[in-house]
Design goal:
Blueprint lengths: L1 H16 L3 H11 L10 E7 L4 E19 L6 E11 L3 E2 L5 E7 L1 E3 L4 E12 L3 E2 L5 E6 L5 E14 L4 E7 L8 E2 L4 E9 L5 E3 L4 E3 L5 E3 L11 H6 L9 E4 L2
Parallel strand pairs: 1-13, 8-11, 9-12, 10-13, 10-14
Antiparallel strand pairs: 1-5, 2-3, 2-7, 4-5, 6-7, 7-9, 10-11, 10-17, 14-15, 15-16
C-alpha cells in the first residue's frame, strides 16, 4: 500500500505539469474506489420487486481528501473540487422473490476517505431496456432521522422506436422531507405499485397515446417529450393513487 501511495504522489504531479488533469481524474477514480463492504454505520434499503421490475440503488460519495482538477482554456490556472463517485449497491433478493435488500455504507473508506452524501432509488424494468431512469433522491446529512418509508405509484411509459421498445416509469410525487442521518445506522423502506391502467405509449412518430385514448403530438428536444405522472392521470380514468413519505423513528 505504501508503494502504491508513493507511486501515486509521483505520478499525479507529473500529470499536472503536463496539463493532463483529465487523466488525474480517471486515475483517481480507478485507483481509489469506494469500499462498499466497509465496516461501520450503514443505510439498509428494503424494496419491493416483481417479475417485471426491480429497484436500482446508487450511493453518491464525496471526498474532501481527493480532489478533481479543473483547468482553464489556456491551461494556466487550475482549480479543485471534491471528488465524487456513484456506486450501485448489490441487490440481494429474498427467497420469496418479492423483496430485496441493499447495503450502502456511510463511510466508504479507502485512501480518499469516501463519505456518503446521497442515495438514489429508482424502479427499473427487468423486461425492457430503460429509456431513462427517474430516481427518488435521499440526501444523507446531519439529521436526527434514521428510518423512512416511501410509497409511490408508477405509470409505465413505453417508448417505441423502429427497432425496439424501451420503458420508463413516471412516478407520483411524494411530498415531504426525505433526509437521513449520516451519523446513525439507517433504514429505507421503498415500496411501489406499477399501475397497468396508467400505461402510456410514445409511438415512433412522436405521439403520446394516453390511457383514455387521448393523443398528443410531441415536439422539441428529448426532454420535452417526457410525459409526467400528473399529465397521465389527467388523461386517464384513474383519479386516485397512493403516494407518501414518512419518518418511522
Amino acid at each position: 500500500m505504501l508503494m502504491t501511495m508513493i507511486k501515486s504522489l509521483i505520478f499525479i504531479p507529473y500529470l499536472l505539469l503536463s496539463g493532463c488533469g483529465e487523466y488525474i481524474n480517471i486515475y483517481l477514480d480507478n485507483k481509489f474506489p469506494v469500499n462498499m463492504n466497509n465496516d461501520g454505520k450503514k443505510i439498509t434499503v428494503y424494496s419491493t420487486i416483481s417479475l417485471e421490475t426491480a429497484v436500482e440503488v446508487i450511493g453518491t460519495y464525496t471526498s474532501n481528501k481527493c480532489e478533481r482538477s479543473h483547468f482553464n482554456a489556456s491551461y494556466t490556472k487550475v482549480t479543485y473540487s471534491s471528488l465524487t463517485q456513484e456506486v450501485e449497491a448489490e441487490r440481494k433478493i429474498a427467497e420469496d422473490n418479492k423483496t430485496a435488500t441493499y447495503i450502502v455504507p456511510i463511510d466508504g473508506g479507502g485512501w480518499c476517505n469516501w463519505k456518503l452524501v446521497e442515495i438514489d432509488i429508482a424502479p427499473v424494468s427487468t423486461i425492457y431496456k430503460s429509456h431513462m431512469v427517474i430516481s427518488e433522491v435521499i440526501p444523507i446529512v446531519d439529521d436526527k432521522h434514521s428510518k423512512i418509508e416511501l410509497f409511490t405509484t408508477l405509470a409505465p411509459v413505453i417508448v417505441e422506436s423502429k427497432n425496439d421498445q424501451k420503458i420508463y416509469y413516471a412516478s407520483s410525487k411524494m411530498e415531504g422531507e426525505k433526509k437521513l442521518s449520516n451519523k446513525l445506522n439507517g433504514e429505507i423502506y421503498f415500496n411501489y405499485k406499477v399501475e397497468p391502467k396508467l400505461t402510456t405509449t410514445i409511438s415512433n412518430d412522436k405521439k403520446a397515446i394516453f390511457p383514455n385514448g387521448n393523443i398528443k403530438t410531441l415536439s422539441g428536444s428529448t426532454y420535452s417529450k417526457i410525459i409526467g405522472f400528473n399529465e397521465i392521470i389527467e388523461n386517464s380514468d384513474e383519479k386516485t393513487f397512493t403516494s407518501f413519505v414518512r419518518y418511522i423513528d
